[in-house]
Write a structure and sequence with these properties.
The chain is mainly α. It has a domain of about 70 residues. It is about 65% helix and about 0% strand. It has 3 helices and no strands. Helix 2 packs antiparallel against helix 3. The longest helix has about 35 residues.
Amino acid sequence: MIIPSIPAIPSISATAASGATQAVGAPGGVSTTGAATSGSFQNILGQAIDSLNGVTNNATNLSLQAVAGNATVADATVASIVATLDTQLASALASRAVTSLNTIMNMQL
C-alpha cells in the first residue's frame, strides 16, 4: 500500500496575487491593484513559497521512491530533514513578520 502524496500547492501568479492584495485593500481605501515589479515583495514571497513547495514535494517523492526501492533511505532522510528545516524557517519568519507588524501597528504617532 502506497501512501498518497499531498497535492501540490498551485503557484501564485502576478494577477492572482494582485487580486488577493486588492481583496485585502490598503488603509484609506487606496486601491493596490497593478502589475507587480520583478523585485516586488509579493513576487519574492511567491517564489519563496514555490521553493518551499518544491523542497517538500521532492522529500515526498524521494520517500515514496525509497519505499519502492528506487532511492536510498539516506537520500530520503536528507530530503526530509531539508524540508523540515525549510518549513521551520518559513514558520519562524512568518511569526517574526506578524510580531513586527503588530509592533508597528501599536506605535503611537
